[in-house]
UniProtKB/TrEMBL annotation:
Identification of the protein by name: RND family efflux transporter, MFP subunit
Gene Ontology molecular functions: efflux transmembrane transporter activity
Family: Belongs to the membrane fusion protein (MFP) (TC 8.A.1) family.
Classification via Pfam families: Beta-barrel_RND_2 (PF25954), BSH_RND (PF25917), HH_MFP_RND (PF25876), YknX_C (PF25989)
Segments forming domain Multidrug resistance protein MdtA-like alpha-helical hairpin: 120-187
GO cellular component: efflux pump complex
Organism of derivation: Sporomusa malonica
Length: 376
């Protein structure tokens, strides 16, 4: 019995030792295999991913770009008429669209106060003329006394001066009378040129001030179209090669035009510049106020345009991906006007360069690519 217990105590440690040795061996094999695999893996090069991109070859186009502006048919000369004196309007002789001739009375203001001024000036003239007659009689009488030596030269000079003062008073009163007569005539607003009434801004019973516009008359003669142009199109407008004018009410009529006048300052409300386009030999069917469309064709000049999808924008400067020897390079550009899904490139690109036109925000500098595409 004692021998059996002794053998059992010896066998148990041997089993633990045996299993421990097996565990150590397995661990050594796992570690050795991992190190060998890692060594073999690190020696293999990683294959670089080459992306397939859509591209085009940049080329210059010579197609002229047209711009169309809406406008209104206006007269070459428009007179904004106003009374030269203040007063209450008591008569209006014209309507919108009335054809008038030079000298026709268009409106009249109440002349009663003006008539009273004329009457007062006339009385002053009569009074001054009476004083002049008295001064003239005294001067003749004292001239005779001077010749006989009855009075001194100093006394005679006093009467001479009185006569000159009376003469000046007559001239002053006459001038005031003429001014009053003119103002009485100004109570009638007359047309200075033949034309058509296009605007009336005052009615009977309204009190107007001197210089306030009440009627606009478009003079007979030349017709033109007024359009509004943004400031970024002014230079192109000055270099326009051809101007064509069409009319909404006359679809079969097209008239040649010429840029006559460009406003030096922008309109305060619209921030656009008023431009007048003269009509060359317009037909009689064209009437004032018609809606017109002015098409401006720029001179044919080579220009580079690229699709909008080719522009890479990550800041204030637009850029494009240029492919050089199958490698991407990000190049900044200066852009111009927009087209139908395209944008004009003013600088930064040369003809013959190949650029990426799709997926530009998924690429990176120096990346190798494969491409396909055609010239733009």
């Amino acid at each position: 019995m004692l021998q059996l217990k002794f053998l059992t105590r010896i066998q148990i440690p041997r089993k633990k030792l045996y299993y421990g040795l097996i565990a150590v061996g397995v661990g050594a094999c796992v570690i050795g295999g991992s190190l060998a695999w890692a060594k073999n893996t690190s020696n293999k090069p990683i294959a670089e991913e080459i992306a397939m991109v859509r591209t085009i070859v940049v080329g210059a186009t010579g197609t002229a770009q047209d711009y169309t502006y809406s406008g209104e048919v206006r007269g070459r000369f428009e007179s904004q008429l106003a009374f030269q004196v203040s007063g209450k309007i008591i008569k209006r002789n014209v309507q919108l669209g009335t054809t008038v001739n030079a000298g026709d009375v268009l409106m009249q203001i109440d002349p009663r106060d003006l008539q009273q001024n004329v009457s007062s000036s006339s009385a002053q003239v009569s009074s001054a003329e009476s004083q002049l007659k008295l001064a003239e009689s005294n001067l003749q009488r004292y001239r005779q006394l001077l010749e006989t030596g009855a009075i001194s030269r100093a006394q005679f000079d006093q009467y001479t001066n009185s006569y000159e003062v009376a003469l000046a008073a007559v001239r002053q009163a006459s001038a005031q009378y003429a001014q009053g007569s003119n103002q009485l005539d100004y109570s009638l607003l007359r047309a200075d040129k033949p034309g058509v009434v296009t605007s009336i801004t005052a009615e009977m019973g309204q009190v107007v001030t001197a210089g306030q516009t009440v009627i606009t008359v478009v003079q007979d003669g030349e017709r033109e179209v007024e359009i509004s142009v943004p400031e970024n199109r002014l230079e192109e407008l000055r270099k326009a090669g051809q101007v064509k004018v069409t009319f909404w009410a006359l679809p079969n009529v097209t008239v040649n035009g010429a840029i006559r006048e460009i406003a030096p300052m922008a309109d305060q409300a619209t921030r656009t510049f008023k431009v007048r386009v003269s009509l060359v030999n317009p037909p009689a069917e064209i009437k004032l106020g018609m809606t017109a469309a002015v098409t401006v064709a720029n001179s044919t000049q080579p220009q580079i345009t690229v699709p909008l999808t080719a522009v890479y924008q990550d800041g204030d400067t637009p850029k494009v991906w240029v492919i050089k020897e199958d490698t991407l390079t990000l190049c900044p550009i200066q852009t111009g006007g927009l087209g139908n899904g395209t944008i004009q490139v003013l600088s930064g690109l040369q003809q013959g360069e190949r650029i990426v036109i799709a997926g530009v925000h998924k690429l990176k500098e120096g990346q190798k690519v494969k491409f396909g595409g055609a010239s733009l």
